[in-house]
Amino acid sequence: MDFLLHERVRSGDRTAFAEIFDEHARVVYAHAIRTTGDWALAEDVMSLTFLEAWRLRDKLREEVRSVRAWLLGIATNVMRNIARAARRHRDAMSRLPPPEALPDFSDAIVGQMADAERLAAAGRALKRLKRTEREVFTLVVWSDLGYAATAEALGIPVGTVRSRLSRAREKLRRLVEEELAPKAHGVEPRTYSGHISQREGTSVRPSHRRNGR
User: Fold this and answer.
1) How far apart are CA 160 and CA 143, in angstroms?
2) Bias category Polar residues: which stretches (predicted)?
């Protein structure tokens, strides 16, 4: 049945491709949200993944043993490209004159759900891993892809998947604790550049107007 479905997709049958989308879209989206920590960006990744899969539909031949692994491999490449584009954008913005300072109202918005806080902490910690370790971890652990399928998705040996995953697990346990620790002590978590959102050692005091009388 899979062979017939793939044949229909390769021939340009959009209804057949919709069946593949319905079966795997949730997995691709979950992989993207866990990797990026951004709901909107994850939707973009999912859309771009299936657009690219449609463009590459002729590859649905014998070399694609697992459609799920193939799609997650495409999603991983999409996120690599997005990350590179974001770095180029940041580099370009860094060369511009500094903008006029504006009041920061972010302190007025406080997350209420612990799982959201842990997801954010995990996302920050994940971005501190090497890209190769991050890709293996998100595919094997969060997307529940087997070692062999992950190796197929990334184009690396199974032994490399195992070693990278082992290093990623060990680092993440430590990094997530570091990300959550400042919040537990009332300190702003550090950003990816290693700085905190406000100057260390300073506090914001409410202003008091003098009575005009």
Assistant:
1) 18
2) 194-205
Residue 210 to residue 181: CA distance in whole angstroms: 39
Q: What is the CA radius of gyration of the chain?
A: 22
Burial 58-69 (b: 16+ CB within 10 A, else e): eebeeebeebbb
Q: Pick from 207, 184, 188: which is nearest to 196 by CA?
A: 188
Residues in the chain: 213
Q: How many CB atoms lie within 10 A of CB 55?
A: 10
* The dihedral formed by the CA atoms of 191, 154, 73 and 13, expressed in degrees to the nearest 10: 170
User: How far apart, in whole angstroms, are the C-alpha atoms of residue 170 and residue 172?
Assistant: 6
User: What are the Cα distances from residue 147, in Å, to 14, 74, 152, 210?
Assistant: 31, 17, 9, 67
pLDDT in tens, 56-109: 888 887 667 788 999 999 999 999 888 777 667 666 666 666 555 444 433 433
Helices (runs of H) and strands (runs of E) counted in the chain = 8, 0
